[in-house]
Amino acid sequence: FLMDEPLSNLDAKLRVQIRGEIADLQRKTGTTTLYVTHDQAEAMTLGHRVAIINGGELQQVDEPERLYDRPANLFVAGFLGSPGMNVFPINLMKKENGLAVLLGESTLTLPGDAWENIPNLMANVNQPVLLGLRPEAIAPGTDGGKGAMPVHVLSVDSLGHENLVYFELPHDPGRRQVMRVPNSMRPEPGSEFRIYPDLRQARFFSLDGQAITT
Predict the structure, then answer these.
(1) How many CB atoms lie within 10 A of CB 159?
(2) What is the pLDDT of residues 151-195, one digit of tens each?
(3) Which of 43, 54, 90, 156 has the fewest CB atoms within 10 Å, i.e. is most exposed?
(4) What does DSSP assign to residue 184?
């Protein structure tokens, strides 16, 4: 079957319903289906393998979960996920027993499982690279929390079950980042907030946007 954006003109509720019916039909028939969509939710829920194309050029082909976890470049990282991946300019530093990330005025130690399987990362020590973190890889901190970083809250979007907190780092004003927090937490826009980046979920990219991998 060849399907070219079959659900694009439906309202949101009907789109979810028909998406489930298409998935059921595909499972029952086992027929290979090529499905074209600009809706990432459709791609992630319906696709067994997803090909992401930008400007007519193939960017990456893989299983949906791997595309989300291991994007090949910044386009894929930003396209998948709602909101997309945060990107922070950083410097990598060599420590006595590992690597650290210099993010503004904060020096954060990289856990071993965040870099030991990426040999190419060592080649970028003392050079500027880009750090990618999904919104769920950033946790709220407290004023006294060890390793917590101060950020400036820009706005808060309430989604009912959770809030999206948009913020900027003090050393990098104008670069809008986002994190997910429980719906019970709603910091005031303009206030200072503290965050814990989970570097075990970090992804690294060169300045030209390509993932730094093995």
Answers:
(1) 9
(2) 999 999 999 999 999 999 998 899 999 999 999 999 999 999 999
(3) 54
(4) T
